[in-house]
Amino acid sequence: MPVFKLVVAFNYLLLIVPTYSLNTVEIVPNIISRQNWHARQPVERELLEVTPTPYVVIHHGGEPKYCYDEKTCSAIVRQYQNFHIDDRHWFDIGYSFVIGEDGNVYEGRGWDYVGAHAPGYNTQSIGICIIGDFSNFVPNEKALKTLNDLIKYGVKLRKIRGDYHILGHRQARSTLCPGTAFYKYVQTLPRWTNHPIPNYSNGTTTTLAL
């Protein structure tokens, strides 16, 4: 084959063969907006004191209610919000985000607002709850992958610090949350810490950073 034809053939292959770089692939979780899960309006909002936040606090719903599709998960998230507003008298759903075993993220208070999920950490953390009771088993692979992707996405957006630490809800108060089985999993995560530093609004502890 003449040299000219070889060059043309090579250039043609370059055009039709896709190239990928692991460094440029960005995993963006599918976030269902408050509007799309039909959230109520918050009573009030307060901006986080520390951004990017140094902590991610992991929760489970604590009830044996599970969901594998957007419609069912949305209904459960609405139940969480109603309970938190009507029974707990909080401003809104307590969590920053909720994850279903459908693999979706449901926007709670979001990246920028103080949550009501972990005393001592509400002003300096993102609170993430996975729907269900995980006392005896861990969430499914979809939910765990989404949890990982959401945290990475928060770091990418500079909403979560690059040197963030993870803790389970039971490290902030006396509770079984996020469930015995799930908490054992949380403890295996690279950024889990056994020495978190709380910040209470009454001034008993003022340290906000790690």
Automatic annotation (TrEMBL):
<dbReference type="InterPro" id="IPR002502">
    <property type="entry name" value="Amidase_domain"/>
</dbReference>
<dbReference type="GO" id="GO:0042834">
    <property type="term" value="F:peptidoglycan binding"/>
</dbReference>
<feature type="domain" description="N-acetylmuramoyl-L-alanine amidase">
    <location>
        <begin position="43"/>
        <end position="179"/>
    </location>
</feature>
<dbReference type="GO" id="GO:0009253">
    <property type="term" value="P:peptidoglycan catabolic process"/>
</dbReference>
<keyword id="KW-0391">Immunity</keyword>
<comment type="similarity">
    <text>Belongs to the N-acetylmuramoyl-L-alanine amidase 2 family.</text>
</comment>
<dbReference type="Pfam" id="PF01510">
    <property type="entry name" value="Amidase_2"/>
</dbReference>
<feature type="signal peptide">
    <location>
        <begin position="1"/>
        <end position="21"/>
    </location>
</feature>
<dbReference type="InterPro" id="IPR017331">
    <property type="entry name" value="Peptidoglycan_recognition"/>
</dbReference>
<dbReference type="InterPro" id="IPR036505">
    <property type="entry name" value="Amidase/PGRP_sf"/>
</dbReference>
<dbReference type="InterPro" id="IPR006619">
    <property type="entry name" value="PGRP_domain_met/bac"/>
</dbReference>
<dbReference type="GO" id="GO:0045087">
    <property type="term" value="P:innate immune response"/>
</dbReference>
<feature type="disulfide bond">
    <location>
        <begin position="67"/>
        <end position="73"/>
    </location>
</feature>
<dbReference type="GO" id="GO:0008270">
    <property type="term" value="F:zinc ion binding"/>
</dbReference>
<feature type="domain" description="Peptidoglycan recognition protein family">
    <location>
        <begin position="29"/>
        <end position="173"/>
    </location>
</feature>
<protein>
    <recommendedName>
        <fullName>Peptidoglycan-recognition protein</fullName>
    </recommendedName>
</protein>
<dbReference type="InterPro" id="IPR015510">
    <property type="entry name" value="PGRP"/>
</dbReference>
<keyword id="KW-0399">Innate immunity</keyword>
<keyword id="KW-1015">Disulfide bond</keyword>
<keyword id="KW-0732">Signal</keyword>
<dbReference type="GO" id="GO:0008745">
    <property type="term" value="F:N-acetylmuramoyl-L-alanine amidase activity"/>
</dbReference>
